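Feature request, filed as a ticket because there's no other form

It would be nice if the structure record came with a short human-readable summary line next to the tokens. Right now we just get the raw output. Example of a typical job, pasted below so the devs can see what we mean:
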Amino acid sequence: MRRRIAVFRRVRSKLHEVHLWKCQATRISVGLMTLLLAIGCAPQPAVGAAPERPQISEDAKKPSSPAQTKIDTRLRAAIDRAKSPQTVDPQRRPGPLDVDSDGKVLVDIRGSATTELAMAITALGGLVINSFPEYESMRARVPLLKLEQLAERSDVRSIRPAEQSVNREPSVNR
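Raw output as currently delivered:
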């Protein structure tokens, strides 16, 4: 029994030494990296590597009004671009939006799908494609610059680009 205790103590001592060694190695590597960064010798990106994309500032991502919180970021970016193309961050690119030649974008609207909402969309120059009151959803074409006015309504919860169906072509080698 004493022999087992002695072996256990030696093993525990060795494990403690290994742990201390790992901690010391970590401290040394962190210190070395800090020193390299301080004197400007940090590792440079490899030649031919893709350039690092600038990050979008948090202010650019944040909506400035309660109505904008209901609008998808891709639509907000398109609205910003349409309002003032010279001041928009060039790295802020929206995904594909279905915009027709009249500047109306195809959107899915979540909220109470009532006739009042349909009339409001029409009054803004939009066109209701379909309405599903049981799912509290509508699909409509709305002028891009009128989306904020639509989002101000209390019966609208969210506005996002319309989800498009994806059809898979049949495989030829079947």
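Something like this underneath would help us a lot:
Helices lie at 2-39, 58-61, 73-83, 115-123, 147-151.
The longest strand covers residues 104-111.
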